[in-house]
Amino acid sequence: MKKQINIGILGLGTIGSGTYSVLNSHKSDYVKRVGAKIAIKKIAVKSLNKKRLVKVPKSLLTTDVLSIVNNPEIDVVVELMGGINPAKDLILKALKNKKHVVTANKELLANYGKQIFDTAAKNDVDIYFEASVGGGIPIIRPLKRELAANRIIKVMGIVNGTTNYILTKMADEGSFFEQALSEAQAKGYAEANPKADVDGYDAAAKIAILASIAFNSRVVANQVFTEGIRAIKPQDIEYARDMNHVIKLIALAKENKEGLDVRVHPTMIPVSHPLAAVSDVYNAIFVEGDAVGEVMFFGQGAGGKPTASAVVGDIIDIAGNIIDGRTGKMKCTCYNKKQVMPVGQIISSYYLRMKVADKPGVLAKIARVFGDKQVSIGSVIQKGHGGKLADLVFITHQTKEKNLRAALMLINSLDEVSKTNNVIRVEG
Amino acid sequence: MKKQINIGILGLGTIGSGTYSVLNSHKSDYVKRVGAKIAIKKIAVKSLNKKRLVKVPKSLLTTDVLSIVNNPEIDVVVELMGGINPAKDLILKALKNKKHVVTANKELLANYGKQIFDTAAKNDVDIYFEASVGGGIPIIRPLKRELAANRIIKVMGIVNGTTNYILTKMADEGSFFEQALSEAQAKGYAEANPKADVDGYDAAAKIAILASIAFNSRVVANQVFTEGIRAIKPQDIEYARDMNHVIKLIALAKENKEGLDVRVHPTMIPVSHPLAAVSDVYNAIFVEGDAVGEVMFFGQGAGGKPTASAVVGDIIDIAGNIIDGRTGKMKCTCYNKKQVMPVGQIISSYYLRMKVADKPGVLAKIARVFGDKQVSIGSVIQKGHGGKLADLVFITHQTKEKNLRAALMLINSLDEVSKTNNVIRVEG
Fold first, then answer.
1. A206 is an active site residue
2. Residues of A in contact with B130 (CB under 8 A)
3. Are residues A204 and A317 in the same domain?
4. pLDDT in tens, chain A (428 residues)
5. CB-based contact A291 B299, cutoff 8 Å
6. In 10 A of CB B419, how many CB atoms?
7. What chain A residue is nearest to B333 in terms of C-alpha separation?
8. Do residues B317 and B364 share a domain?
9. Looking at the structure, do residues B151 and B296 belong to the same domain, yes or no?
10. Is residue B331 in a domain?
11. Which residues 294-333 on chain A approach chain B with CB closer than 8 angstroms?
């Protein structure tokens, strides 16, 4: 029996450093748990001389990534570089070399998941990716295993800490998006180029991964309708609050008769919803199953140590599997083929804020257009009466998105309507 | 390769019926997931003619429990009777007959866990018990596996729905315990004999199980200091609210230098704590790990279908393991031996409500006793000034429980003190 499981790590940034530190802090615990020592053999970095978050012996570092993925001594390759290239080729090579792989790379899995899982299966090795969604929050394996008895009805989460921090700041301080973003950048919660976070792409990759597991059917990132938070204004947050709602960047996936409804967008949710209280950089994933009802998983969705918790958890599981001789069993569960619905087909309630001429008869004109397009209005409130222009805030009943869009196109062409300033979907 | 996994179920009450119904509703999904059919061979019941929550063919029922645990055709025995006897003997017999076991029986595991896990290990079979804590909420396996990288600092949960419902009612409606209990009984949330729930024994069994996993050291039910919610009065809830706290029945386990601190009692927690918002029959378990930080698992902690979600999840995992030929690997992880601290040694803050003579000098007398016993007071508020007697409400700083108890014994013997009406521990 093996006495030691050798791992090689690709990348020593925030998560790599966290992983190094966690793996080294409880070595003797892991020996008891696994039945063998887990040893870091090599860590691939871009530069040997860069200042690091952790103290790592020089002898462990290499700039030669192939010396890890091709190393016959290494059992598990831990990919923590992120991005598609060169991570994809390195992971595929490692799998072909019969190495198990642990990765936190949501972008890669959400785009090339099938190829990667197929390659793992073909080579009878495992790929673990608990850290790819929700940082340290256990969600991938619970959804795959502990909730396996359920037909999943809905997965709905706050899976991006940066945007949740920004929206929390905006709500608490009444600030504008740009201001809250600067604060987030100053605190290190947002990157210099915040696009992947604030435009929703990071969340889209994550919900593609969760949807694939929840509905047993592969969903890729570009099938996810994605809208970021740049358009949210303090008024929207204020009007939402008046109606006992909060605005969160929600990633959601549900199954309908017509297929899977998978999307990321700012969403108004009632303050009573468990996700409404999830603030700052915290993440939470809410799952509804036909047996379990509603469950929620909450925690830190990012950061070196929390994410390392998931990475090292995966390493321990794989190491235990190697010792027990039961590898190659963490199979892909996408055994169904389901359509992803085009966004025009989705059904939702909508919050609409529009600037209109403040005079009699305007509401009647707008209401007629909604009626003609089968959009039923739940409530309408006028804000800022007395000037030339006023805000009209509508909440629609459940309606097909393409009907709403058709109605808005006509409404925006009315003389009395200056502009529709925001459209935010509402979830129960 | 096996084409079918045969299971036998012991018990057809709420959870048994839920399990039967869930197992039958998604049969074809489970075949895809497991690679074989999961078939219910027999269900043991007390009476063949009782009216059931589900329609079950008569041919499946038997009153002969041994015909299940001794049946060579059965691969997995699912024990859903509850209680120590005869569940214990039946599970041990099943394990000795090389059958895997799934159980929801927290009482049994919290008292005879060691014997049961040892027997499973000896016979190279698995025992799964996800349903024993938190109903359908995934917590056992996430704590054992996904969070394995962490040294656990604290586990703190609302793990009993009945008491949480009662405390929620008391808080929302200002009602007394007895009244809220009657309501809970009328709604079917509390049993006719509510002792196990309201006196904290159910929660104590659950935290014993969680502590054993979290700290890798066996904790049994009678090592858990246990206090129920009968003494909570509307005033306590009101005074807590004045200080931005709520009162919950909290089960907690932490590790200190002196050992494990494991207990169940009514606890004042700040309204900002994630557990404070967990109301009605919902459960939530909050885990703090040195890498992951704080994570929380939330959902329905009881009920037929939610609990069946966990039971059937376990069955699917075991069935998959049998098909993959990798059974007997869900090992007991109690590889440490840690002391459980006596309650006198624990450190906590305390809320104290006492009835005293409403005249000058009383507070000075009481304060001197606290000072003599090394109990430091954080705040004191007098409620109901102007009569003969007034309420004094103290919040202490962190102090050793035995010092607090010594101080209270002296204080209660003072002429000016009519009575200490309640002592409630405060957690941050």
1. yes
2. 146
3. no
4. 678 999 999 999 999 999 999 999 999 999 999 999 999 999 999 999 888 889 999 999 999 999 999 999 999 999 999 999 999 999 999 999 999 999 999 999 999 999 999 999 999 999 999 999 999 999 999 999 999 999 999 999 999 999 999 999 999 999 999 999 999 999 999 999 999 999 999 999 999 999 999 999 999 999 999 999 999 999 999 999 999 999 999 999 999 999 999 999 999 999 989 899 999 999 999 999 999 999 999 999 989 999 999 999 999 999 999 998 888 877 889 999 999 999 999 999 999 999 999 988 999 999 999 999 999 999 999 988 788 999 999 999 999 999 999 999 999 999 999 989 999 999 98
5. no
6. 11
7. A33
8. no
9. yes
10. no
11. 294-300, 303, 305-306, 308-313, 315-317, 320, 324-326, 329, 333
Residue range of the domain that includes A198: 140-300
- Would you say the C-alpha torsion A225, A231, A232, A235 has a positive or negative sign? negative
Question: Taking CB atoms and an 8 Å limit, are B309 and A300 in contact across chains?
Answer: no
Are residues A190 and A197 in contact, defined by beta-carbon separation less than 8 angstroms?
yes
d(CA A62, CA B369): 65
Least Cα distance to B313 among A295, A124, A334 occurs for: A295
Handedness of CA B135, B141, B144, B148 (dihedral sign): negative
* A136 at B interface, C-beta within 8 A: yes
Residue A301 Cα to chain centre, angstroms: 9
| A115 shares its domain with A161 | no
Cβ–Cβ below 8 Å for B324 and A324: no
Q: Are residues A308 and A250 in the same domain?
A: no
What is the dihedral sign for C-alpha B101, B106, B107, B113?
Answer: positive
Q: Which of B99, B106, B169, B206 is catalytic?
A: B206
Return the residue in B155, B295, B312 with the most chain A beta carbons within 10 A, the one to mutate for interface testing.
B295
In a domain, residue B336? The reply is no
If you ran DSSP here, which 8-state letter would residue A124 be given? T
- What Rg do the C-alpha atoms of chain B give, in angstroms? 24
**B276 vs A311: CA distance, rounded Å:** 30
Structure tokens at A119: 């390659």
> Nearest C-alpha of chain B: how many angstroms from A321?
9
Rounded Cα distance, A90 and A110, in Å: 17
CB contact under 8 A, A308 and B145: no
Total domain count, chain A? 3
ipTM of the modeled complex: 0.94
Pick the residue of B150, B305, B338 with the most A CBs within 10 A to test the interface with A by mutation.
Answer: B150
Residue B123 CB-half CA count within 13 A: 20
